[in-house]
Amino acid sequence: EIVLTQSPGTLSLSPGERATLSCRASQTVSNTYLAWYQQKPGQAPRLLIYSASYRATGIPDRFSGSGSGTDFTLTISRLEPEDFAVYYCQQFGSSPRTFGQGTKVEIK
Amino acid sequence: EVQLVESGGGLVQPGGSLRLSCAVSGFTFSNYAMSWVRQAPGKGLEWVSVISGSGGSTYYADSVKGRFTISRDNSKNTMYLQMNSLRAEDTAVYYCTKGKVPVTTNTAFDIWGQGTMVTVSS
């Protein structure tokens, strides 16, 4: 099983600042089969990034993903008020598919 | 508009069974893998199972293998999760999700239902 470890657990930032979230895999994620999701309280998750660096439909370009192998990053270039949420990475290249434990981006 | 609507959640005693359904609309159901993801109260996301578009391939998390069965009826545009031998740790919101890329089960999940709550308690 591929274990995904996200860091930091919580990121305290102000609107307009840059957010950098990390997702590290215990083994190589094949074919960059890695996604990022955003979840707000009481809502279902929303797909942001798939295959490590491709933005999903309707996702603003302030969200970007990068990485390969075992190290992946989600960057939010300038935080908007609606971006404060929990973010999860997920690998879908091998079974079982696994999620990271999440990073909470909170208002400082 | 693509829609996924889960149903079938509720309160069940430990050791009991429950069947969840996910009714879909707005896309060609048989072309896409579908998956179940759950979230225990106050916790993170946990992938449960995935099924290919034809239903011929299925995969499970170790935590549910042998107890849960995923299936689909493409003529009814519906996916199911049969849950047996339920435990307290299965208590969670269960989300139905759609694969983004057609055909393959190696895909991110681009559409999520609103979730259905399953509570396992005596």
Give keywords.
heterodimer; A: 108 residues; mainly beta; seven-stranded mixed β-sheet; four-stranded antiparallel β-sheet; globular; B: 122 residues; 11 strands; 0% helix
Count of DSSP helices of chain A?
Answer: 0
- Cα shape of chain A: globular
Structural class of chain B: mainly beta
Task: Identify the most extensive interface between protein chains.
Answer: A-B, 26 and 22 residues
Structure in words:
The complex is a heterodimer of chains A (108) and B (122). With 108 residues, chain A is mostly beta strands. Chain A contains no helices and eleven strands. In chain A, strands 2, 4, 5, 6, 9, 10 and 11 form a seven-stranded mixed β-sheet that branches. In chain A, strands 1-3-8-7 form a four-stranded antiparallel β-sheet, with no helix packed on it. In chain A, strand 5 and strand 6 (54-55) form a beta hairpin. Chain B is 0% helix and 50% strand. Chain B has no helices and eleven strands. In chain B, strands 2, 4, 5, 6, 9, 10 and 11 form a seven-stranded mixed β-sheet that branches. Chains A and B meet through strand 4, strand 5 and strand 10 of A and strand 5 and strand 10 of B.
Quick gist of this model?
With 108 residues, chain A is mostly beta strands. In chain A, 0% of the residues lie in helices and 49% in strands. In chain B, 0% of the residues lie in helices and 50% in strands.
